[in-house]
Amino acid sequence: MRLIRIAWTYLRVGLAAELQYRANFAVQALQTLGGLGFALGGVWTVFGHTQTLAGWHPEEVAALVGVYFLIRGAINAVIQPSMQLLLEDVRRGTLDFTLTKPEDAQLLVSVRRVEVWRIVDVLVGVAVLAAAVGRLGGRIGVADALAFGVALACGAAIVYSFLLALATFTFWFVRVENILVIFQSMYTAGQWPVGIYPAWLRASLTFVVPIAFAVTVPAEGLTGRLDPVTLGGAAALAVGLLALSRAFWKVGLRRYTGASA
Question: What pLDDT is attached to residue 208?
């Protein structure tokens, strides 16, 4: 509840700030719809030449595209802006203003900047996902829906932990923005099932940069492809990464010497 209360507070602050620049909504909507057009256009082109792609049917890949936009929206609306603000604060020595607040510092740095217009990605992802589910129809059972929900929550936790760990390196290195940019570039690979890539790239997108757990695994849950072992592995990885990123954050925080130190 505390997380929701704090996130809601920062969401209202972000909304109040962004409403001064309402044209940003139109720009973000155009960017999102353009990206969606290219993504679905690519799917349409590929399936114009084949019936399946690594065993995936068109409506199943459409569901994966929906998950891709949903997770991308959450990353771009909250996680990435908040991590970038953390990098700026550490570099300028102004993180003190956050550390002196009577709340958990990790919680505050994780949600304190919300770029409201980026939520358009989330809405588009939900719409595409709903359309794909409509096409899948009776093929989705209660177990599939539950597996999807659990896998999606695990994927979000894994991506958050990964980005927090990357941002924590800022306590040792001055500029780590490029690492976050590289993550964004690699994330575009998630709009296709990870199984279509060569083994080395598939392993990289699963265990080095965990995009497969964020996008492909939830889509597998929705389409009945997810086995209990993989789902259990995703849950274990999510819990492990949350704990590791938390410990790494505390180690990094001890190295911080701000403007008032």
Answer: 85
